Every structure is written in C-alpha cells, then in structure tokens.
Amino acid sequence: MKRPPTLLYALSLLLALATLLLSLNPVAHADDPTGDGTIAADEADEIGEGDLESPAIEGEGILHSRARYPTLDRGDRGTDVKALQYLLRYHSYSPGSIDGVFGGGTDSAVRAFQSAKGLTVDGIVGEATWGKLIVTVRDSSPISDAVRAVQLMLNEKRFAGLTIDGDFGPATLSAVRAFQSDVSIGVDGVVGPTTWKNLIWHYERPLISSSTNLCSHGQWGDQWGTGSMVGSLERAGQYFASQGAGRIHTRDISREHGGDIPDHSSHELGLDVDLRPIRTDGGQCNYTTTWQSSTYSRSRTRELIRDLIDGGNVKYIFFNDPTLINEFPQVIYVSNHDDHLHVRYCERGHPDSRYRC
C-alpha cells in the first residue's frame, strides 16, 4: 500500500485554506474612483460611516473608526469651511474673507489650488484635496494660517478657548494633546495626517444663543453634529429670527463620536436633528405641540421649513402635517413624527447613500 505524499498533501490543504480566507476578506479595491473622496455604496441603506475603516499612519497612532474627511463644495458653511479657508490662505490662494461660507471666492481658490496640484478641477474638496491642503504643524512651527485652522477647530469642536493667532504655543500644544487623547490616537502634540483627519471629521455642538436663534433642553451629550450640518442649522436659525416666532428648539443630533442614541434608529452620523413644530405663541422652547393641536402654527412651521431648506443641504424632513407634505417634496410622512420635525441633512459623496446629496 502506497503512503500519501505528505508534503504535497499539506500544501494543498494550505492552498485551499488561503483561498477560503481570501473569499471572506477580498482584496480592497480603490474606494475613490473619482480621485476626490466620492465613495460608491452598492447597498444604499446598509452601508454606514462606521463600516469604512481607515488605515493606520505610522508614527501617529490610528484613525478613529469613524474618521474621514468631509466633502465640501459651494454652498456649504461652518467650521470646516473656515478651516478650509485658512488652509487655502496658508498655500497663498486667497478665498476672500475667512467667514465659513463656501462662496465664489472660496470656490475660485479651491479650483486654482486643485489645478496647481494636478487634481481634478471641480471645486469639490474631498479626500484628495484635503490631503494636499494639510501640513504637519507642531510646537516648533512658525506662526501660520495652518496653525490658525487647528486652533479654530479645537475651539469649536473641543471648547479649547484658544486665541486664534497662529502661534503654536503651550496652550495649543496642550489642547492638541488633549484632543489626541480624547479620540485615542497617538498623544505626541504633533498635528500630522492622522490628527488632521480626526480633527476635521470631529463633530461639534451648535451654539445655543440669541445670535443663532436656537434653544434646547436636550441632553448635551446628544447634541453633536458635523461642521457643515451645524453651520446650516445655525444659518436657518438666523433666517427664522426675522419671523418673530421664537427660537428653533433642537435636540437629538448625535453623540460626540457618533454611535447609538436610545429610542432612535438613526441620529448616529451627525446629520440628523429633531426640531419642535412652531407654536402659535412662539413658546416651543418651553412647550411642545403636535400638528393636530390648536397651539400649532402651520404658517410659522411652513416658514421654518423654508428657512431650513434655504439654509442648505436638507435632504428630508420627516413630519406628518399632510398639508406641508403636499407643499414640500422634502417633507415625508413617518409614523410617530406628529410632534417633531426630524431633519436629515446630507453631504456630497457621503458613504451612506441615505445621507448623500
């Protein structure tokens, strides 16, 4: 009786096992076919931001599991746009005023920068453009607009209280290290590619004040949104102030780093917010109402919806007033939405198509 060729037999088993493992974990293909951060999602409703893992960058820790560069283009506003403007100015491409509004001046500066760097010239700031804009800064760096961008984001996203002077001094160093610790990346005080991506991605809280015409009685831990979403919401609040119908009551946006909020199936990506309908007495900051109630003001809620849409990047508003559903294509019926407007913002190129403009 012949003995089996032991070595060949073992090699065949190893080959079969390797084939099985590759079938379970296929080699990743390019996730950015456009060259600038647009990621296709084949299973639209099942792909979430947390499903996309970013590679570690040697020497600077790892990215937070949800961190990615947001995609910005004309019409966006907020902290991330202001950071973009500082970075453009650092590279000697003037966006005009550092005002957090992605208007004509910023668009022209982005296009000129993209052309100079050999990128697709489309005015859209995605992964490739951010990658060329960021520069490593540390406590030995000279005063610059790149440092101002870091200071701005640490103030808006981590309440650092820094003077935005472009000087990477002890206070900025301490704030950078605290941020790195908060998002569990390498704590070295150096703002390199990993820290930049985490910082630009990091959520922030809307300003609750008379200047934004917003109010809230929600849990502060659930009031974190993307920079662009917060900028659009604050702009809508400023629009609505002219109605003389009280402030906009906000709650339940997202947690600081995303993740589940009890009693919600969404509100995990910093792009959803619940707003109370407007009351006839303008008292929505203190009392709620439903669209069926005598205290509900349809005319003022209609103006709120217009201001939200004009503020930019609103994909849907889940609210059950049938009259407003007939008037606005963005307003959609969803059960249990009689007493609040669930506003869903969107972003160009978002990896989850439910949030893609």
Descriptive report:
This protein is an alpha/beta fold and 357 residues long. It has two domains: 51-201, Muramoyl-pentapeptide Carboxypeptidase, domain 1; 214-355, Muramoyl-pentapeptide Carboxypeptidase, domain 2 (2-Layer Sandwich). It contains ten helices and six strands; from the N terminus they run H-H-H-H-H-H-H-E-H-E-E-H-E-H-E-E. The chain has helices at residues 6-24, 79-90, 104-116, 127-133, 145-158, 170-182, 193-201, 227-241, 298-311, 322-327, and strands spanning 214-215, 248-251, 272-275, 314-318, 331-332, 341-345. It has a six-stranded mixed sheet with strand order 1-2-3-6-4-5. Strand 4, helix 10 and strand 5 form a beta-alpha-beta unit. The longest helix has 19 residues, at 6-24.
Descriptive tags:
6-stranded mixed beta sheet; Muramoyl-pentapeptide Carboxypeptidase, domain 2; 10 helices; Muramoyl-pentapeptide Carboxypeptidase, domain 1; alpha/beta; 357 residues; 34% helix
Low-confidence stretches: 1-60
* Proportion of beta-strand residues: 5-15%
* Helix-strand category: alpha/beta
CATH architecture of the largest domain: Orthogonal Bundle
CATH class of the largest domain: Mainly Alpha
Side-by-side strand order of the widest sheet: 1-2-3-6-4-5
CATH superfamily of the largest domain: PGBD-like superfamily/PGBD
**Biggest sheet descriptor:** 6 strands, mixed
Helix-strand sequence: HHHHHHHEHEEHEHEE
CA-based gyration radius: 24 Å
Estimated helix fraction: 25-40%
Shape descriptor: globular
Q: N-to-C terminal Cα separation, in Å? A: 70 Å
Number of strands: 6
Domains, number: 2
CATH topology of the largest domain: Muramoyl-pentapeptide Carboxypeptidase, domain 1
Mean pLDDT: 84
Continuous helix count: 10
